[in-house]
Amino acid sequence: NEIKIFSPATVANVSCGFDVLGFCLDTVGDEMVIKKTQEKGIKITKIEGFNLPLEVKKNVAGVAALAIYNDAKPECGFEIEIYKKIKPGSGIGSSSASASGVVFAINELLGKPYSKTQLSTFAMKGEAVASGSEHADNIAPGIFGGFTLVKSNHPLKILELPTPTNLYATLIHPQIEVKTSEARDILPKSIPMENAITQWSNLGSLVHALHTNDYHLLGDSLQDVIVEPYRSKLIPHYNDVKEAALNNGALGCGISGSGPSIFSLSESLETAKKVEKAIQEIYSKTEIEFYTFTSKIN
Ligand code: HSE
Asked: Which residues, 6+ apart, have CB-to-CB distance to 277 below 8 Å?
């Protein structure tokens, strides 16, 4: 009647896959405790870590919980405790981790009536509270694990992509907040055909690289000619970090979700650690607080 879960951080977009591609990290995530109650309805009883609303309809996890609850119409209610470890506005799927975690947990307590895709649909309702639009590129890797591609939103169709055996992600999170809604507002409404061609060529190549375990092609495909030019301006020292990562052996480097976190991918733990150190050196010279971590992608 009670479940404790870990809901992982995720990286959305992955350079060339704006709003469709994502992968799951396994070292950082939120913890939640969900309890079945006799009294009907959803209640958030505790939030630790960050100052977020306890009011169910204003809370990402609350809205996601209501979505699954109203569909399932069970003869019980649920109480939610949230131990938030992922800072909101960090670009590593903070809101999505809360939304995915709560629907996963409620599904378990109900005896698993829903598929992972259905759970993602419920979680998207919560995510929309934070980002202003429904997209599943953080939700899907959180619920399915590994790399995922959102084939379509309506109806929601998620493809699970294979993960190369020895792939590591290094993240740096500068302690500045970039609101997803604002990072979306600055994007152009239309794009030149030439850029579209480059982007879909890279996205197709990246998917092929994942299927064929081709690290070289993977690195070559990690380019973003559409979103990065706008959003990188919101992230201090972005170009320096990218240069340091690539010079130290990273396969590629880009903005994690809507930023300000920056991700790099490396072929081995040894390279990933080297990349992490080089990136730390860049930010150590600034006044901005930051933290870094490296995670295997599973
Ligand atoms: N794909 C989304 C974006 C992820 O980049 O705006 C952040 O929620």
From this structure: 248
Asked if the model's pLDDT at residue 177 lies above 90, the reply is no
42 bridge partner residues: 78
* Three-state secondary-structure class, residue 83: strand
CB 99 within 8 A of CB 29: no
Pocket test for ligand 1, best of 10, 11, 13, 96 (most atoms within 8 A of CB): 13
Residue 144 pLDDT exceeds 80: yes
pLDDT band at 89 (very low <50, low <70, confident <90, very high): confident
Eight-state DSSP code of residue 37 = E
Instruction: Compute the chain's Rg from CA coordinates.
Output: 19
pLDDT tier for residue 132 given thresholds of 50, 70 and 90:
confident
Residue 48 appears among annotated catalytic residues: no
Q: What is the pLDDT of residue 288?
A: 95
160 counts as catalytic: no
User: What is the interface pTM, i.e. ipTM, of the complex?
Assistant: 0.98
Q: Tell me the whole-structure pTM to 2 decimals.
A: 0.95
CB of residue 135 inside a 6 A radius of ligand 1: yes
Q: Which amino acid is at 159?
A: L
Distance 84 CA to ligand 1 centre (A): 20
The whole-angstrom separation of Cα 276 and Cα 171 is: 8
Whether the CB of 184 sits within 6 Å of ligand 1: yes
